[in-house]
Give the backbone structure.
Amino acid sequence: MNENPMLDDPGHRLDTISNLLPQKGIDSVMHIRKKLTTGTETLISSDPTLTTIKTPQILVVDDDVFNISALTMVLHKLGYSCDTAFNGKQAIQKIMGRQLNDHSRSNPTKQYKLVFMDCNMPIMDGFEATKILKGKMRNGEIEGIPIVACTALLNEKEKQLAYELGIDAYVLKPLEKDKIEVLLKKFVGSSV
């Protein structure tokens, strides 16, 4: 039995994410979180509005699992498949891994069509990852992939840095569905 009876009283619960979301939403987020943290490349969900596609078109890079979950849900509902990375180093590894795939150059669907890159992450931030990736693109080591910087705050100095590094666009968090759709039309075109 719980030693604190106030915790058992729903009127005294803290408003955590699990108390604010409907149970179906919690189940979907937790199922996605489990798949993301186990390292699977394709998103698999019990939610029928989300589909499983073998070749993810878009790479979502963010260190926050709830940010990743929210963006991948929107992208899936719009018909796009996603892969995920939790920092810039993982993003580079995933992109380079696809480039090394023998079938990648002959089958352009194997390449990512767009990267949503969080700017502030541990291990390697989005600015450093973009600098490395754009350098590899210029040197012909990897095919060109548009990179969209995602950040909660971008001051003028960071905007200038973003464009100097070759970031193709930036969007402020929280990401809005209509802004995501505009970026998808501009950089990706139709979903597969």
About this structure: The chain is about 45% helix and 10% strand.
